[in-house]
TrEMBL record:
<protein>
    <recommendedName>
        <fullName>Coiled-coil-helix-coiled-coil-helix domain-containing protein 7</fullName>
    </recommendedName>
</protein>
<keyword id="KW-1015">Disulfide bond</keyword>
<comment type="similarity">
    <text>Belongs to the CHCHD7 family.</text>
</comment>
<dbReference type="GO" id="GO:0005758">
    <property type="term" value="C:mitochondrial intermembrane space"/>
</dbReference>
<keyword id="KW-0496">Mitochondrion</keyword>
<dbReference type="InterPro" id="IPR051040">
    <property type="entry name" value="COX23"/>
</dbReference>
<dbReference type="InterPro" id="IPR009069">
    <property type="entry name" value="Cys_alpha_HP_mot_SF"/>
</dbReference>
<dbReference type="GO" id="GO:0033108">
    <property type="term" value="P:mitochondrial respiratory chain complex assembly"/>
</dbReference>
Length: 96
């Protein structure tokens, strides 16, 4: 039983590191803004709609990029943080 808990905790920590890794998650800023808004507004979702939309649009945009790269055979599917900066510069900033 104890071994199972340790393994579960390791998996959870590993997932958390991956979610917070800038190379794996292109929408960290939007995620943080949404969470901060929820904290600041006592979890009133109506007050944070704009942040939720930005997060949703961010995920949609980068998912499209990821799907295109997969289709074109480019690895890794998700561009690194450095590559994402160049992509955003080439299109004139964040489209979301």
């Amino acid at each position: 039983m104890l071994d199972r808990r340790k393994r579960s905790k390791r998996i959870t920590c590993k997932k958390l590191r991956r979610v917070r890794d800038d190379d794996n998650n292109p929408c960290i800023l939007e995620t943080d803004a949404s969470r901060k808004c929820m904290d600041d507004n006592s979890y009133n979702k109506d007050m944070c709609t704009i942040h939720f939309l930005r997060y949703k649009n961010c995920r949609k945009f980068w998912n499209g990029i990821m799907m295109q790269r997969r289709k074109d055979g480019i690895q890794p599917n998700m561009p690194t943080a450095e590559e994402r900066e160049k992509i955003l510069e080439s299109i004139g900033g964040m489209p979301y």
